[in-house]
């Protein structure tokens, strides 16, 4: 019998990945929805996330790991069966098609993950397991035992939310234990969150749906017991969510298509090499008439960044932090000197503004126009036994 293969755990919470050295790897990718920057133990010692903290401290914390300002792990379309997971490469799927579900009417995702692990031989099979937890997305629901862990928090919504984070941490701990017990182990990943429900992004500015760092920079780490060349430190190299696909594809023995948005970041993740990218687009929205781009240390915002523009404290929230404000057409920030975006330096560096506007124009020329269609009556669940279902377009 062959000796067990080394595995990798990668976490943006977004995720857990397990990789093998000699053979195509096992990959387990975990996503947490709407997790705030300040809602993990390695950023905030008031949070109880021991499983995540342990992996983060022993792996590589990614402090410049970016995600989209609005949801994407769900909302990818299901009007036609061909858009659903089992028609796009997955052998099996358990989940839901819309953006949120009641936590108390569905089976626990972690339990299903363990069932899948029991069906795979870690020596003969290669596994890709994608675990996009709804936690900690609304609705704010958690068993009382987790809420009680934060009894010192007076605000109900924040107390419940923090309990949800700890319940998520326990689920990740259960999964990593199952991986270890079954001879798989290890790799994980973590994403950003909205202060306007109950999460918190301090000291970053803004929240989900905004172009500020608080709405786009995710708490993230990568952990591996065998594959990382450099561990126990914070990596500040630029990484975007679109980079994970070509990175994991390369590790699995594939070859990324030259037309992909993302780039292979394994040298950066594994050994701290300079990032394979020097710029990225936060978003371009021709409905809201705003956009943002980062090139090197500089970030340019065009138009209004969104509706949540302050450095929102922990709940209870202050009303003045929740309203939209007026901004110059273009704002420029030096994220190396000013990561919390307090100082607009556009008037001091018109040359930099011009350079970033040129890059933004380049991307605008190739973008797909924004699309927010009206509901289609053919999708009504009454046509499908009371369930949301594909097959109506």
Automatic annotation (TrEMBL):
<keyword id="KW-0732">Signal</keyword>
<feature type="signal peptide">
    <location>
        <begin position="1"/>
        <end position="22"/>
    </location>
</feature>
<dbReference type="InterPro" id="IPR017850">
    <property type="entry name" value="Alkaline_phosphatase_core_sf"/>
</dbReference>
<dbReference type="InterPro" id="IPR000917">
    <property type="entry name" value="Sulfatase_N"/>
</dbReference>
<dbReference type="InterPro" id="IPR047115">
    <property type="entry name" value="ARSB"/>
</dbReference>
<keyword id="KW-0479">Metal-binding</keyword>
<keyword id="KW-0106">Calcium</keyword>
<dbReference type="Pfam" id="PF00884">
    <property type="entry name" value="Sulfatase"/>
</dbReference>
<feature type="domain" description="Sulfatase N-terminal">
    <location>
        <begin position="72"/>
        <end position="253"/>
    </location>
</feature>
<keyword id="KW-0325">Glycoprotein</keyword>
<comment type="similarity">
    <text>Belongs to the sulfatase family.</text>
</comment>
<protein>
    <submittedName>
        <fullName>ARSB-like protein</fullName>
    </submittedName>
</protein>
